[in-house]
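Hi! If you just cloned this repository, the fastest way to understand the data is to look at a raw example. We've pasted two of them here, unedited. The first protein comes first, obviously.
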Amino acid sequence: MPVSRRSTVWALALAVLSPRLLLAQDSIAAAASYTAVAASWSDFAAHEMADKEIPGLSVALVDDQQIIWARGFGLLDPDDSSRGPATAQTVYRVASVSKLFTAIEIMRLVEQKKIDLDQPVARYLPEFRPSNPFGIPITVRMLLTHRSGLVREPPVGGLTDTSGASLAAAVASLNASTLVYRPGTHTKYSNAAVGVLGLLIERMARDSFATVERRQVLQPLGMSHSDFSPRPDLIAALGHGLIWSSDGRESAAPIFQFGIASAANLYTTVIDLGHFLSALFADGRGPGGAIVRSGTLRAMYQPQYPESGHAPFGLGFELGALDGHPTVGHGGIAYGYATTVLAIPSAKLGVIVVSTRYWTNDVTQRLAAQALRLMLAVRQRQPLPVVALPAPVPVELARELAGRYGTGERVIQLDFRHNRLYATWFSGGPRAELRMLADTLITDDRVSFGRRLLQAGDRLVSGVDTLARVAESEPAAVPARWAGLLGEYGAPFGPLVVLERNGVLTVQRAQLVFYPLQEVSRDTFQFPPRGMNDGERLSFIRDSTGRATGVTMGAQYLPRRHIEPEAGNVYRITPLHPIDELRREALAATPPVDSMATRAPDLVELTPLDSTIHLDIRYATSRNFMGSPFYSAPRAFLQRPAAEALVRVSNRLRAQGYGLLIHDAYRPWYVTKMFWDASPTPDRVFVANPYPGSHHNRGSAVDLSMYQLANGQPVSMVSTYDEFSPRAYAEYPGGTSLERWHREVLRRAMDAEGFTVIPTEWWHFDYRDWRQYPVLNQTFEQIHP
């Protein structure tokens, strides 16, 4: 069934308004010498917001002790335009930027000689006792620099725990965890580690972490619109964040307090963060006095453990370089938000950029880097640099390049979708859109920028690898021992998706990023030594049938999400009204009249056109999501051009050993109205809105799957038909390679003959001329008795 497409206010605004009209009025006007910088950067930001569909964004630029420009773009809340535009005073959750403020308070304690960076943490928190098979104690310095070897998240109070657990509870839960790496030997990013630092601050101050930070850091810096607690005034000004998934789902960000407050709980504005950068440039002094000494700050900017050859962290700060200038700062990813704080201490220049779309940090980082380049150009009296914007890959080239390259662990899949080209690296990472920059293919979308591929004949060059195109063949069935493990686990707003890909058990984190796993035993797998769960183990808990009921990831337990129907069953809803009542009201209603329809209906029955087209018309039976028959007989009709195109699809698939299995085609309008009126609001994304009329009502849409010609058995797909779950989405990443292969074979054949799949249902395809036909309400008997 077709999707009810929700048109958001922000998408309309970005499509219609000029970049200048997207600028909010509540801002700090650009200083005279930076007006050209503000104009140039605004144009770049407006482009990125429209291209990446970012609803709101704020920026502040800092030159030494002055915020020389601060402004908001877009909307504070795309679902409620009455809240007005985003501004420089919009409040955001800046996630891991919180760690900088925790680090400042820890270093204040070091200055006061209350703690020693190189003493074991257990000296100050004797109750902190995670399992440590290495015998090397964890020090405060290791916690500050992500060298402790701790798991990424604690079992309690992590970023998916909505219980509101305390810092003490989060740290106590780490006693059930085991160190992943020998302390001091490996940089492994850990929110849990910074949670321990937060409890250490509480213990030393004998006060809550939020209170200490407010008194000792935020207030002296003049950050009056910032807090680690959700003050009512901050929540009232909070920008509306969006979370999204690689398959096209989108929803409002959940708002709850993280137990590891010291790692991720800061609410703030870009102006307040500008005051923070000014204090850094003033050697640690804010309007309310010094928060740390100048020598302490310099020490915090120094690479820690440089002997490792890669030292991305100082004491709390992420370290880097921009065009030869050493930089300090931090990024933040919270549900619905992406933040970049970036500064060049030697030049006393800094920038803060915050977006209200989850996991757009590559965008905010690129915007921040360009801001600094523009500011440096003004300082050096040079022409302002212009950003090189990648162009779309030409359609014919994109079609030509689509396919699989490489073998074994080094595989890149290029997919042609909606006239665009997308790349998936099976070694891990997100799927990303490819564009052209000169003669180079480069990733450029919300989640990735700058990963490059070179085309060399029938090969792709990726880094040091030259990968030859390989023929795509039907994948092998998933190993039986893995069958019960596939599925979703954890919170609905950020589930762990376990799938099989290229013969490897793989997980998708944050609904975007893939990690291949190494099998350790029947139920235990290991993450690669990089990424979000660097080196951690994943262990499944099975029931007596072999089906996993949950999984431990590091130290976290994630229960299975029961999103799919039970084995062999049909997905069902509980109708909001009795079926007879729904039918009576629908038959009495009047279908819409479409003045744009110009072609007379010519519905033809499908099965007489091709004997290999088989029917499984669920709405002629009770085996459907409503549990009741709606058609008097299992028949399928389409407008003649669509029907003839479907016969050509059948011919294509027959050569590959498949036949078409039709679930639904033309549908009388009154049946669509029954579905809509019966469905709860959250499920209506899977049900067509009857008031404009659906494509099925016009005889130009078909729901279908495939069967094997050799034995007549339906092929396996990622979800069941008419399943109201994420698995139904056309780009849903889960399931097995074979299931996704079947889905792709069907899609390619349909696409070649003018059918387009809708995003929410892999089985639903619209024919290209659907708009030309009227909405119909004839029964099957009225079409052909």
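Ok, and the second one:
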Amino acid sequence: MDVNGTRFKLLLDQPDWSAATDEQGQLLGRVWAGGVPGPDPTLAWDKERHELTLRKQVFEFPAGLLDRPPQLLDRRGAGADVYGNWYWIGPDARTILVESVGDGSTTQFWPGRGDCAPPAERLGTFRPAEPAPPRPASQYVGAAVTEDHFLVVGTLDPPGLIVFDLLGGGPPSQLPWPAAVDFRPFDIARRPGGGVFVLDAEHGIVWELDRTFRIVPAEQPGPSSPPGGSFEPVEGPAESPPPRVSTVDATAVGADAIAVEAGFDGFLVLERGASAGRSSVAYYAAGSQVGAAMPVKDTAIGDVVGHDLALVGDTLFVADSAGNQAFAFTLELDGTGPHLTLATSYYPMRLFGGKGLVAANGQPWYDFGEGWIPLVAQRRSRYVESGALVTPVFDGAEPGCVWHRLALDAILPPDTSLSVSSKASDEADALAIAAWNPEPAPLARRTGVEVPFVDLGPYKTYELLFQRAQGRYLQVKLELRGDGRSSPRVRALRAWFPRFSYLEHYLPGVYREDPVSTSFLDRYLANIEGMSTAIEDRIAAAQVLLHPQTVPPEWLDWLASWFDLALDPMWDDSRRRLFLANAMRFFAARGTMRGVEIALRFALDACVDAGVYDDTRPPALATARIVESFRTRKTPGVVFGDPTDLEPLRVVSTTARWQPAQGAEVLDAGYAAYLDSVGLPARSYPIADPGDETSDAWRTFSLAAVGFVPQLAEAEPWQAFLSRRYPNAVAAATAHGLPISPAGFDELEPPVTLPTGAAAVLDWYQFESVVLPMKRKAHRFTVLLPWPMRIADSSGHQLDHVQLRDLAKRIADVQKPAHTTYDVKFFWAAFRVGEARLGDDTLLASGSRVPELVEPAVLGRDYVGTTTLAGPLADDEIRRIAPSQPDTQEAP
């Protein structure tokens, strides 16, 4: 609603636009869902951009008069390994070529070419009178690279397969086929989990081989129990002979099958169907066909005769037999078989040689010249040239409502346009017979959207003033027109009502006496009203500029300047708004450890919400861990992930430790006995390093018996300690057995020998074990960052660990308490059995040493032991299995 009380009816997003109808009266939602028979719709909904457009059509590459379509004889099996090396059968069908990813050169992979000359024959060597004729090379057909890095190639003479170990190297393994089984491989596809599918197009069957290259029977027979009373060996039944290979083990497919591709839990087969002028795709699982074969066709492109197919995810690519392009289909599978939905993207195949269409490393590839290039969608859109819709009936709630304006948020490329017609009536039933009234062409607003302070991004607001739309009920017909190469893109529609008339509110009645001039003057003043209302709306809505959740993104920095802040350019808008909305809570925590934690989470956490100000995460869940040094006085820093902590580990004695209640005499006696046991002269226990030959023994005994290494205390902290423990200096001197009557605590000196009184011993013990360690660790903390941490700046560039450490330092410098010092370190392998508290220090889950989390080492940047030196093969956990020989027993 604007300042004049004018409201609007809105169409936004798919549910609203689906309620509109086409020119035949069919709901667009049903038409888009395919539930209405008849011609294809002229309008479409773009789900990615959330906008209404003309329906896309597939761009078809016209074949030239001299074009030579690829033939099935041009097909060559091909495959790529994970490193990007390509292997395929040469044009003579008796060599295997390789395109190396390193230099991009194409060389002969097999048979290998030796560079060494044959050794010279010695005089008198026996040899045949005539050299034996060379054995002809095998004829190859079909090839694929398996998931565990084996190159499998089909052979016709002799029939069988050869397998190359691409990781282990060496000559190939020959997998001959039983002589009794006529085997004619044509196409080979990799099998999920290892192994291949082999299409024998001549016999119309598909063989499935597992990762050990043993034949997987098409139907798995169940176990049969032996008949009762049968004789068996005492040691148990003898090992059954290996099963014989026969065509029963293969899956029968269509006689016109030309390509096989693994998919879902089975495989897909492309049936060429050249005689019928239409190919089809069939799905097979567990040795039988699932549902019916799906024709490769669409009303937009008609029938397609395929040359090859490739499946990437749920997108099926079919190369057209004309050799100029491939068609992409979204593949869905249910009990009735495969279902194909045409994608409108254009996939040209320039200079396609017909060797094949191959899915490798997550995308489709086709042969180009002597190599292979990815099949990429080209931005060459094609649309129907026009389309129209009729909006639902808008209710103005008042009889005789004068509808004001129509606003459209849209993008109009060159040579596209929008046309609007309207009809209005006080009776809803009368709209069906009312005539459409053409409205003026909508024009772009120079001041942007009419709703104040709303950012439309790339969209513009096009508006028009309704001319004769008067009545309670309104319908609008919107026509989109294009040139076939582009389409209008409509995001939202707003129909404003009722009109706030300057003529009725501000001019005398004499200006409303003549109906013709009244109508003109009312519409003329409505233009002025539109400009004035836009200004008044911005004034009335000025409060949105002062709220972090409603202020436009470009004004966030201005709003932050009220706090004398400069927002981090790495933050997105949601993070900036959250910070500004809780700025006072953040400033309340500034200068505390809590403030440092909040600031680090804002900068380093991937997801931040308002809970950052309230919850206190345990260290295991925190991105950056803050360790205050005084909390680690009894625990070495290495337990908290700090391997550079220089303080020694505590030595814990297995014997009972001395307690102050036992008195100084027990400690002196124990120390004397210990010195005697190590061959040193006995003496009383000193409370400072004696600096002689007993120093090492004194330190060892102190750690074991007392729990710490004493040192002479300074006067000021000792006097401050006594002042907090005793009401006055006289009471402190009396408790310590001093012969003086001091006027103040500054006259009390710290002890230089082990005190003798019970109170004095207890004071000395607690001062040495608690006060001094806390004083040494006070006002210091460490920020521990996990290694490795991946944070991107505003341009998407990943920050390295040096930049992350500098970022953490800048944050800590600004937010830390003024009297503290700190350092920033990285931690790894923080979870150690016996050295961590589950649920507090860390979580029992994948740690930071998981290989996926460790970056490769960079010379001069990384530390030894924090990363890896190995390349991609370090992550290869494949257990190499030598190809097994198929059973050579002949089938009965």
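That's it. A detail worth noticing about the second one: The radius of gyration is 42 Å.
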